Amino acid sequence: TLVCVSAGVYRVRAPIDVNKGIVISAPGGPQGTVVNNAGAGSVRCFSISHSNAVVAGFTMTGMNIIDYSYRGGGVMMTAGTVTNCIITDLHMGGRGGGVYMSGGRLVDSVISGNSVTEWNEGVGGGICLVDGLVERCVITNNFVTSHQGGAGVHMSGGTVRNCLISANRGL
Fold this sequence. Notes:
Elements: E1 2-4, E2 8-12, E3 16-18, E4 23-25, E5 33-37, E6 46-48, E7 54-56, E8 59-61, E9 64-65, E10 75-77, E11 81-83, E12 86-88, E13 91-92, E14 99-107, E15 110-112, E16 115-116, E17 127-135, E18 138-140, E19 143-144, E20 153-155, E21 159-161, E22 164-166, E23 169-170
Parallel strand pairs: 1-4, 2-5, 3-6, 4-7, 5-8, 6-10, 7-11, 8-12, 9-13, 10-14, 11-14, 12-15, 13-16, 14-17, 15-18, 16-19, 17-20, 17-21, 18-22, 19-23
């Protein structure tokens, strides 16, 4: 099943839960199709949990939450694929300011300007990678205050391949 999303700004009050083998695509690309937190508290843009699910062509932005147990400001993935997305300006306390991955694939995307601010447990300003594949991505200008690090990518498993990782910083 293919779901095409028209260009526009979509303000979510609950995560878009992709738990079926569908493709959600923004043919206009991430510059014109934005998923933004509507100020509803602990709300990430997407949760992806099906191996055949695909999210393509979105900008994910706008979350700002200090919940230290939260994971994945833009997207939390246990399976599936995110491709051709911009994941930016997401700020949180927990793990994976932009993306939290315990499975799936993140490809051909930009992860930039995200942060994690929890000192003891916060890791992965851009990406917290437990398992899965990150490939052909640009991971830049992310920030972490944790003493555990991982401003761009914090890895406890998984694979990062053919990515540009630069200008990420921590305290």
